[in-house]
Design a protein that fits this description.
With 286 residues, the chain is α/β, with parallel strands linked by helices. The chain folds into 2 domains: 230 residues, Phosphoenolpyruvate-binding domains (TIM Barrel, Alpha-Beta Barrel); 45 residues, no CATH class. An 8-stranded parallel beta barrel has the order 1-2-3-4-5-6-7-8, surrounded by 6 helices. It starts with a helix and ends with a helix.
Length: 286
């Protein structure tokens, strides 16, 4: 089954899927090994992994290269971050070709002014709603795979207010989007309003210490939220662990003090599936 079709079937099941954000092949494999049925390739995480902030500084060619690595490393569907489409409708269509070649099952496209900012940062600005609606129509009309999931994202809550964000999302869904994604609602009441306002599938960006309240799975299921992404948490955990390891190396010359929280040598090799590659090497050795 194509990954796009698999994702569509998962969404149509009506279940709530908790989706870790990944930013490279290793993080993707770790999340899959933990039991994730879907993965979210976070644009912000990909940018931060190169040492730069999530402010639209990465270009789509760089993003597609990383998406290929992520998709190739796992078996489950991957949802990607399409940012703003990197320009007008023609730019979005050009970028679409790369995302489809990379093999993502779907992606979200947003209405921020380009270059954009992380959805929970201050100082955002949005384009006229008609501009994103036009991009969504263009993508739906020209996607090579009809099952490709297009997720409409609006960042207008912080800019124009919650009611305006609802109005924008209605327009985006009418343009053909498959999933509604209103970024950074700030209260449980707003999340409940999104739930009742839209009969279509819904995505929520929810992570500890963000602007959106953290809800338990049972509540998310009650509200009919289909996709729940935690974009940066794996990376934040990795950053903390790497700092601890760096401190230990510089202090002690080794990381023995962290042995109970580090992967073993064997764990590392299992995570990257070394046995498969060793077997292939042995099979085809001359």
């Amino acid at each position: 089954m194509r990954k796009t079709t698999a994702l569509r079937k998962l969404i149509e099941s009506g279940k709530t899927y908790l989706i870790p954000g990944v930013y490279d092949g290793l993080s993707a494999r770790i999340a899959q090994a933990a039991g994730a049925e879907l993965l979210y390739a976070t644009g912000g995480g990909i940018a931060r992994s190169t040492g730069i902030p999530d402010m639209g500084l990465f270009n789509p060619v760089q993003i597609v290269e990383r998406l290929e690595q992520i998709v190739d490393s796992v078996d489950v569907p991957v949802i990607a971050d399409f940012d703003t489409g990197y320009g007008n409708a023609l730019n979005a269509l050009h970028t679409l070709k790369g995302f489809e070649r990379a093999g993502v099952a779907g992606f979200h496209i947003e209405d921020q002014v380009f270059p954009k900012r992380c959805g929970h940062m201050e100082g955002k600005a949005v384009v006229p709603a008609a501009e994103l609606a036009s991009k969504i129509r263009a993508i739906k009309d020209n996607a090579a795979d009809d099952d490709l999931i297009v997720i409409a994202r609006t960042d207008s809550v912080a800019v124009e207010g919650f009611d305006a964000a609802l109005d924008r999302m209605h327009l985006y869904m009418e343009a053909g989007a498959d999933v509604a994604f209103i970024e950074a609602p700030t209260t449980v009441e707003q999340i409940e309003r999104i739930s009742t306002e839209f009969s279509q599938p819904k995505l929520l960006n929810m992570f500890w210490s963000g602007k959106t309240p953290v809800l338990q799975r049972a509540k998310l299921e009650e509200l009919g939220i289909n996709l729940v992404i935690a974009p940066g948490d794996l990376q934040r955990a990795a950053m903390h662990a790497m700092r601890q390891a760096a401190d230990a190396i510089l202090r002690d010359g080794h990381t023995e003090s962290l042995s109970d929280v580090m992967a073993t040598f064997d764990d590392r090799e299992v995570a990257i599936n070394s046995a498969k590659y060793m077997a292939l090497d042995e099979k085809y050795a001359v």
